[in-house]
Each structure stands twice: as structure tokens, then as C-alpha cells.
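Ticket #4471: structure output looks truncated?

Reporter: J.K.
Steps to reproduce: submitted the chain below (327 residues) through the standard prediction queue, then opened the result file.
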Amino acid sequence: MIQETSQLEQVGLERNPGMPLKLDWLKNTQVNLSAVERRAATLGTRRTVKKQWQAAWLLRAITLMDLTTLAGDDTPGRVRRLCAKARQPVRPDLLAALGVSDLNITTAAVCVYPTMVRTAVKALEGSNIPVASVATGFPAGLIPFGQRLEEIRYAVAEGAKEIDIVITREYVLTGNWEALYDEIAAFRSACGEAHLKTILATGELGTLRNVYKASMVAMMAGADFIKTSTGKESVNATLPVSLVMVRAARDYFERTGYRIGFKPAGGIRTAKDALNWLILMKEEVGREYLEPELFRFGASSLLTDIERQLEHFVTGRYSAAFRHPLA
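Returned output as attached by the reporter:
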């Protein structure tokens, strides 16, 4: 799987320019909760990936990770260690045993707070790994609007190529779709050439119908990615929510011709979790979405479990987590 030619090179990928808000797209939106939950529950049971194919899928998952540190005690040293791990996410001896040493496997990006962007950019020089930064008052977003815009501009000026913004949940909960659209469009403008990932904080939106509507408004406003969660909510990425968001992205593509990326984040900790999300993307929107341009995991602890699974494939034994340190 890792050795396949990127299908994006074949089909092309144009950046979503956004469009005027079309409220009629939101009217009569219905989401069948029981059907969504039933479909999500079967993702890990109807299809299984074993042996060398599982190893290949897990290597693919690594290349789709935004390796992340968003802690209050982050330091430049921790960020540099994270960047070193992003450059070499799997031990060289395991890559050699798997026969993939020549593939230059790295994570898709490193995600940090705005004040750590410059440190990350310097640590990743020469690697082609972009730096993503959270912004707009992450995680709650409840700071004055002007400051939220300035935080985006600051992160971009520091060298961030991707910006993960948070929306004002109030606009979704009160059905103020015009305000949500205007907010995200302004964030997109402030990003300039940096790609915009719109975090919906789905655990705080109340209903799957709200999740679908918020996803659609974000895409109309020019989002390059829609993202489930900050990782700080009590409920973060779930398969049912992800299914609704992915189908919203599919609907948007069918109506506009623009593909929007998807990023689940928060609570995805095991290799089995990663496989379930990969299966979701493969079955719902196709193989071309298993590329970093269209799919990311927001991950911190996920990488360790994937490494342990890869070592088990190579040796037949499960290793302790300390055998796969941050750097």
C-alpha cells in the first residue's frame, strides 16, 4: 500500500476556494442516529486487515499523522524531540525488517501552539514536514475576534503552513449559520496560503444534524479540512460523528467538485482505532482519501501503539512502550 503511486497525482487536487453561503443546502437536513451508529459499529467487523497487509496499513497511518503536543508545560526541548520523532517515527531496525527503509516514512505534520511554531520549523528544516499550529483561542475560542485573527497571522508569520482553528460553538447551537460562515471565511482570509483546518468540537454541538450543518458551512466558507475535536472536550473523535462529517464532505464534493480533507482528533490511541478510521475513509470516500492532503490523524500517543504492533509483526512479541520513546 505504501508503495502505490499517489492517486492525487492522477486525479489532481485543487484547493477549495469556498462559495457563497447557501442556506437551502441546510434545510430539511436529517441524520438517522440509529442508522449512523449501526453503520459505524460494522466498520471494524465487516472488514479485517491482517499480517503484512495490516503492517502496510499501519505504516500508511503513520504518514497521515499530525504528531501533536498541546500541553501547558510544552517547552522548546519537548517540541524538538517531537520533531525528531516526526522525522524518524519508527525505529530503523523495524523498518529494515519490514523492507521499507528506502521509503523515507515520516509523519504528515507536527502540530504545536503558535509560540512553538518557530522552534518546530527550525527543527524540521530540510525534511519537507510542515508545521501546523492551533489558533483562534484554542481550545475554547472565547477570546475577542480581533485577537483570534491576529493569532492566525502570528502563527503564519512564524512559519506555520497549516492552521487549526476553533469555531464559536454558540453559532451552531443557536443556528446562526451566517455568523459561523463569516467567522470561518475571515479565518480563511487571515491564513493566506496556509491551509485552514476547521475544528468543530463536535462533542459540544449537541446533535449529529448540527455536526453535518456545521461541516457544510465550514466548507462553504473555504475550509481545506474539517476536524472533529480539539482533544480537550469530554467527547472527542467518534466513528459515528466521523461518518457524518465524511459524508458531508462527500456531498460537498458532489455539488462543487472540490475535495475537502478530514481530520479526526482526540481519543484515537490504538492501532485498532487507526485501522477503523482508515477503513471508514476507504469505504465511504475511496482510496484517494488515504493521502495526507485529504486525511490526517490528530495524534500523540497513537504512534507508540502502532510501533508496538509493527514490532509484534516482526518479532512475534509485544514490546514495552519505553522501547519506542518520543525521540
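Triage note (M.O.): checked the attachment and the full C-alpha cell line is present. The CA atoms of residues 4 and 287 lie 11 Å apart.
Status: closed, working as intended.
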